[in-house]
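Worked Example 4.2. Read the sequence first, then its structure tokens.
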Amino acid sequence: MDAYSAILPAPVSPTEALGRGGGFLTDATERALRMIQLGSRLPAGQAAALVSGTQRPSSVR
């Protein structure tokens, strides 16, 4: 596993989580697919270096 993301964007009550579960799941799926898309654009080896913490993107420095 290289990344993970919570389905809920913030703490919510169980009632709200169940009531809005479909929307929360849709949003979490979109975020996950964006992470996959971003990772696929990185040069070979770059994604592994970012995940392992050995190198940060230049915009973070």
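Now turn to a second chain, presented in exactly the same format:
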Amino acid sequence: MQNSTEQGSHMYVLTLQSQHKSVCTLSGTYTPPPGVTRFDILTQLRTDAVRQYPSMEGGIVLYFALETNHMAHEGVAS
């Protein structure tokens, strides 16, 4: 698998459920500036989700993951 597009340093997945039980999942990559917390990123992602999907206003978080966007290659000789 080749990837020619630049990606952020972290990968995220956020799933929200609206008050009317509809569900929305967002995923992607992001490079946070220095000093940004996980909570800051979650808050921004929720804001972005509501901007894209207004029905998610006041929705609850069903799932949130934020991980470094690299694979560890243990035991691989260079």
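Notes for the reader: The mean pLDDT is 89. The radius of gyration is 15 Å.
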